[in-house]
Amino acid sequence: MTSSDGSTGTADAVVIDSLALSYGPTRALDGITFSVAAGSVTAILGPNGAGKTSTVEVCEGYRRPDSGSVRVWGLDPVRDAAALRPRVGVMLQSGGIYASSRALPVLRHLASFYARPLDVDDLAERLGLQQVRATYRRMSGGEKQRLALACALVGRPDLVFLDEPSAGMDPQARITSWELVEQLRADGVTVVLTTHLLDEAERLADHVVVIDRGRVVAAGSPAQLTGDAEVLTFRATAGLDVGALAAELPLGALVTESPAGSYRVEAPLGPEVLSAVSAWCAENGTSPHGISSGRRSLEDVFLELTGRELRA
């Protein structure tokens, strides 16, 4: 796909280099560096206060960094805001919509500013906004979120920043929003999203950037980050000697207990591993139950990297 600036779509849409930003004595960003490939979906993950929203706000031109640089389509998002505005869609978590506004008039008004906007009625229908008659003040959380998403997309942007795009949505609306993101990628649109839903990132993202305490702690595709590791989980008597169990398993197996009585084995899985776990538990006067197995998830990786659960 060739974008409106004549590029082939193979260049980076966003390049962030050594980004630093402080709020008073608090260091929000501490040398953030990563790039976003044109036409891809990049998910930025991090615990509360990690710096992901600050990173996106600098990219959107809402904040100036203390040092480092950001380029969006090769342009400075603050200095070149007028040139970027027609090409960039932004979904704010706070919505940024007047309290007395209604969904369809807002979308039609925004569409009037663009040369090739999306069809407002079609977009509203897909996001379940056609029948929403309440003012923004009286909309449900999910309705506000769907309207904010529609506002970010109506101008047919080349690049869109989505802050928690499906937060507060019911399952059906969440699936619709995911399908919209997938359609954007198919159309060559670059998407940068922050999310607290790890299954959302795992499904949608081509590239994942994990930020913690203002630094990038990992980056790669979901497959690269999760690797080939397999996981067996089970419940048993609390306080078992996990080191002794690991010694009975293939070399390199990792056994952990968290919370008490819940055990996790990371090792190449096979019948011999399950047999060894069952036999060892029996020898130690207990039996494993609630056994499940599968590949390591993005959530597993996130917890290993940050030691904290991801929350909205």
UniProtKB/TrEMBL annotation:
Query: Is Flavoprotein one of the keywords?
Result: no
Pfam families for this protein? ABC_tran
Q: Which GO terms describe its molecular function?
A: ATP binding
Location in or out of the cell: Cell membrane
Q: Which SUPFAM superfamilies match?
A: P-loop containing nucleoside triphosphate hydrolases
Report keywords, A-Z: Antibiotic resistance, ATP-binding, Nucleotide-binding, Transport
ABC transporter domain spans which residues? 14-238
Topologically, how does it sit relative to the membrane?
Peripheral membrane protein
Q: What is this protein called?
A: ABC transporter ATP-binding protein
